[in-house]
Model the fold of this input.
Amino acid sequence: MRINIVKAFITATIAMLSLNAANAAVTKVEGLTGQQIAEKVAAMEDGYVGESRKLKFLIYDANNNETVREMEYFAKQYENRFDRSIVKFTYPAQLNGVRLLTHSKGADDDDQWLFLPSIKKVKRIATSNKSGAFMGSELAYEDISIRQLEKYQRILLGSEIIDGVESYVIERTPIKANSGYSKQIIWRDQTNLLEIKTEFYDRKGDLLKVRKSMDWKKFGKYWRAQTVEVFNVQTNKRTVMELSEIKLFEDFDNVNFTPRRFQRF
Done:
């Protein structure tokens, strides 16, 4: 137990020192705003039509014990960025058939529903619960939302070299007060605007977790990270997401992204 406490203390200390060093290294950037960069990213993401992929979650507790979750992901683009997605669990057996439906709503709170085959019921996820952990991982339900342009206000803090890459450093704060985060700090590659790292701060303003996006691969004009790691600096837990079999321009006309029908997909 003592070793775990010391390990957690060292990890938190390193994260704090890294944050202070990062803030000191940021230099001013002229001629751009955080909102303009976000709009460029939004334009890059537009036009995918429909997307599918397989996901594997490797979930590690503070003692590095591993839990595996496998799922399939389907998303469809709608007008005004009101995209819809379904996450369908395939492993382990007790979660097989569990589905999460998300309706993105622009600046408004997203709508989400969870289908539990064990009781054959669809449960709407309340706005107050969206900061909760998604199936035991370090992702929150609100992290599942896609193309979140209107949900945040942004400030370009400057430029910094991270992992050898000259990056924009952008602070974004949620417009809605019911978010589980007070702010996020995002590092984006200046050459292609891909996300390198994001820090999430809890409602008290303390660093909560760090997300790193890696192994980027291009599909046509669209980039997708094939490995994403989220590390919770407060609990010493982490989740590694492995993405595979990524397909874009999918025709999902036969998929019903509605709360009455998605459980049959």
